Input
Amino acid sequence: MIPALTRFRKFLRLSLLLLFGVVLSACQATMGTGPQVGQSVRVAMLLPYGSPNAGDDLLASSLENAARLAAAEAVSTQIELVVYPTQADAGTAAAVAQQAVAERADVILGPLRSDAAAAVGVAVANTNVSVLSFSNNASIAGRNLFVLGLTYDNAAARMVSYAAANGRDRIMVVHARNLAGEVARDAVRRAAAASGATVVGEIAYEFSQTGVVAALPEVEAMVAQTGANAMILTADASGALPLFGQLLPDNGFDTEATKIIGLTRWDIPAQTLEIRGLQGGWFVLPDPNAESAFRTRYQLAYQQAPHNLAPLAYDGMRAVIDTVGRTGRLGGVDFASGSGFAGANGVFRLLPDGSIERGLAVVTLQDRQIILVDPAPRTLGAGF
Output
């Protein structure tokens, strides 16, 4: 077959899958079945083995190891884990998900990225098989598809409520003029409305070095005009966060009067902790004690450190084990009906709309060291 035609057909098929996924994401969790009495739970794990992206095979291996660690720790549930390589391709992920269902998978863990997760959710939508993806894109979640990654809504709810309770209730938001930045901005708006804080201003910048530099005078002017006592930077350490952290104090920004707040981890990579303008700022972390305990167990089992995303696979497997032990089923309703799970990064629960709520700690930077200012909860309160 002509290669160009093959690529076009593949693109068309994926586009249709994602189009129907928009409808899917509005749905609530589905009912499901489970393994028969005395049988093991067959878990299909969709991982980016064979990916053209550098590092994906190592990441896939770490995710697989973490899931196997959780399975090995199960007391009364026997797990049969079957790995399906996706090559980091959404069309391939959808195809192997259908293969896994045909081979009697009880549940699917993965895939990693949101385009593949959306395609898989659509591909198995007419089955009773739930998908616990490793994505953090809540817009794809719903019906049979869950996201396990930390979402902006989760981080914003924790961070804004803490800020408001501690006198930092006049918030300005600085975000990139792209989809991720706008999703984060909207999450802050919702969190402010729920916590009693006020969003006094918003600044969007072009996602580039020149865009960040151009935004600095606007930031100073907005603080002066609005009296903002907190500024949320939605960027992460691989984006504009380090540049803002370097340039804000150089331009006279008073980080005492206006607290800098983050919605992402500032500790990865660790060099971010050295940045002068981020000292004294607040950001969220998973439960440090739970994360440390998981890393220790993983290191003992595999003689190497886990990838930073490995806890997602551990948590997915824990959710499977605990849910089937509690209900005997693995439908979306079953995953979302409990009080939560004890995961590698602390307590979490899956919500009926397919999103996730994680118990998060609030930390600050002091002399380039992470200092805990508000611990992660050990349990989660009443559900949404």
